[in-house]
Every structure is written in structure tokens, then in C-alpha cells.
Amino acid sequence: xxxxxxxxxxxxxxxxxxxxxxxxxxxxxxxxxxxxxxxxxxxxxxxxxxxxxxxxxxxxxxxxxxxxxxxxxxxxxxxxxxxxxxxxxxxxxxxxxxxxxxxxxxxxxxxxxxxxxxxxxxxxxxxxxxxxxxxxxxxxxxxxxxxxxxxxxxxxxxxxxxxxxxxxxxxxxxxxxxxxxxxxxxxxxxxxxxxxxxxxxxxxxxxxxxxxxxxxxxxxxxxxxxxxxxxxxxxxxxxxxxxxxxxxxxxxxxxxxxxxxxxxxxxxxxxxxxxxxxxxxxxxxxxxxxxxxxxxxxxxxxxxxxxxxxxxxxxxxxxxxxxxxxxxxxxxxxxxxxxxxxxxxxxxxxxxxxxxxxxxxxxxxxxxxxxxxxxxxxxxxxxxxxxxxxxxxxxxxxxxxxxxxxxxxxxxxxxxxxxxxxxxxxxxxxxxxxxxxxxxxxxxxxxxxxxxxxxxxxxxxxxxxxxxxxxxxxxxxxxxxx
Length: 482
Hints:
single chain; mainly alpha; Growth Hormone, Chain: A; 17 helices; disordered C terminus
């Protein structure tokens, strides 16, 4: 494979590039964790319903999921550094606008602007890391550190967000993105080299529209319980599956899914992040609206979960580098299911020891799951398609979080009479926690099925087929022109 950067980078500069990529993940991840703590304050100030709160989260994750693959392929085509810089500018600007939003409707719109910028950060950052750290073990360690930033954001987000909400107000949770975004922008311009794919992919506007139509209509149908819109989602999905294989260079290369580990990573990402999105949504509302805790106290209550994610995310990266993804995936699925089960079966919310035990176990599971998802998604794929492959994994995460909030929120809204009555809230939450327990079991089963010898064989065959087609296509084009 040809070099994708202009010159090899030294060890110190590689570390700086990794730090910059981690900063971009920090502001995107911190934005979600901080916002969850601020939801009750936003609900009171903006007079929002449960569905309104869902849209403040899902409008962001929905746009993010819709554009991630487009951003990844665009970065491969026109330059990863260029797209990364644009994303930092848009995300920082969107954060400023969110802090000034006068109503729920304008906040949702500004969150969408944030998401447009965010879509250019995570997949492109992962592509930059993949092309900077080309040795497999070093790449796994770098991905583990990068994934550990999610743990940092989970640990710091609830406490920082709670402190800002209690002392300044919910609008301040968006201000913390400004200095980090500006610092990352200046450092990127100074230290990150430009890189492109040697044979960039063509744009696929029809595929992009079908992806956006499918995700948008599916989310709307779940939150607003609209069957006609659900029909639009099914039609968009059918169109996507029929149209994309006919394109020479599709937005979603369905050939990637011939690799069992890649397909498994996609399913695992959806399930794991659906559980995370639903877990944070339910617990934030319960701790503040039902128990009456302040935003800061609620953040401190959830600190055990965040701390476990912070500790186990880098450990997972080291395990993936040393032993492969199988063990971290098995631990992750078991722990996530075990962490949700006490809430589903034993009303863990009403007993602090059980509540904290559930938080700790769930945090361990989520901390273990991120590194194997990312590493499996990009391992074995041609470096020239690193942006697209990592964008599929990032898209799966956002789809999972979008669906988790939408489904769990819909279950809660259907069963609860008022968010301030303990018996109503706890009873209405049961269905959501059973769904999250099922998501954890799915991570366990799919992880076991797609991380063995047979699965690795499918990944190797898929990689060889993709690389052969990449080397043959330019030759064929040259002979045709001559």
C-alpha cells in the first residue's frame, strides 16, 4: 500500500497527533454526558415534555449518524486534516449557538449544527490514528487510549455538568466545548499532517439521502409512535439495500459485511450504545426528578459507573493488543447485562447498595466494549478505506445511542403518569431496563460468535478480496485508456 501521509512521523509528533484526536473525542463525548445531567433543568426552563428531551439528544445523534460515513469518505477524498479542521469550527460554533438558544425548537436546530461538525471529528480522527499508527499492537494501544477518553468524559461529565448547572445554569454546559475546540483547532493546524486515500471514492448523494431518510424516519416513528413514518423507514432501507450494491463506489460498501468480525462489531456497537443511551437517560431523570437530587449530586451518584469506564477502557485496549477482541467482548456483554438486570428485576433504584453495584458493573462492561469495536472495524481493511470503515463503526455507535434514547424514552412515556411519582417512574422503567439487559446479552452472544477462528477466516478472505479489487481496478482502467 502506498504511504498516505507525506512523510513518516516521529514518536513525539505521533503522540501529539493522538492527543489532538483525543481532544476532539473529548468534546463530542463530554457534550453528551454533560447534557444528560442538564436535562431536568432544561425541561423546567424550556417547558419540555419527555419527547422534547429525547429530541435534544436524538437530533444530535441522528444527524451525526446520518453524516458520519459521508464525512469519512469525504475525508479520504479531499483530505483528512481539511475535514477535521472544518468539523472543529462547526462544532465549536454550534456549541456557542446552543448556549444562546431561546427555545426548545432552536436548541434542537443548533444541536443539529453541532452534529454536522461532530460528524467530521470522530471518524476522521480514527482514520488519522489508523494511518499514523500502522503497527497493529501500537495501533491497538493508541485506540485503547483514544477510547479511554470516553471514560474520562463519563467520569468528568456528570460532575462538571452538575456543578455548572447548579452554579451557572444549563447553558454553561455548552461553554466548556469552546476552549477545548479552539485549542484542538490551533494544534491541528500546527501538527497534524494532511493525508488522503491514494484512490479516493466518488460521492454517493443518493446513498447519503437514503441513509438520512432511513435513520430520521425510524427515529421519528419510535419517538412519536407514527406508523406511516415507520413505512417510510422501511422503504428507505429497502431502497438502500437495492441501490448501494449497484454502485461501483457506494457510500456503504456492503462487501465489508462479508467479514464476520466487522458485522459483529457493527451489531455490538448498536447494542452497547443503545444500552448506554437508555441507561443514562433513565437514571438522570430518576435521580433528579424522582429523588429530588441536585444536578451535582446526581452526577456524583453516577460517578462509580463513570470511574469504572475510565479504568477499564485502556485496560481493554491493552487486552485487545495482547490477546485479541474476544475476551474484552465476553466481559463487556456479561457485565452490561448483569448491570442492567438489578434495575429490571429488583428495582435497584430504590436501594442504594444495589443501585451503586449496578452502576459499577455496567461501567465495567461499557469500559471493555469500545476498544474491541473500533479495532475490529478497521483491522484487515485496506488503509485507503480506513475512513469509511471507521465511520461505519462510529455510525453504529450513534445509531445505537439514538435508538436507545428513542425506544427507552418511548417505553417510559407510555407507562409513566408523572415524572415526580416514584412508583409510576420505577414501574414504567422496567420495560426499558429489560431491553437494555437484552442488549448486553446480544453483545455477549455476538461477541462470542464473531471473534473465533471461523470469524477471523472470513475477515482475512474479505480483506484479500478488497485489496485484490483495489489493485486490479487501476490496472484495468489504464489498459482501457491505452
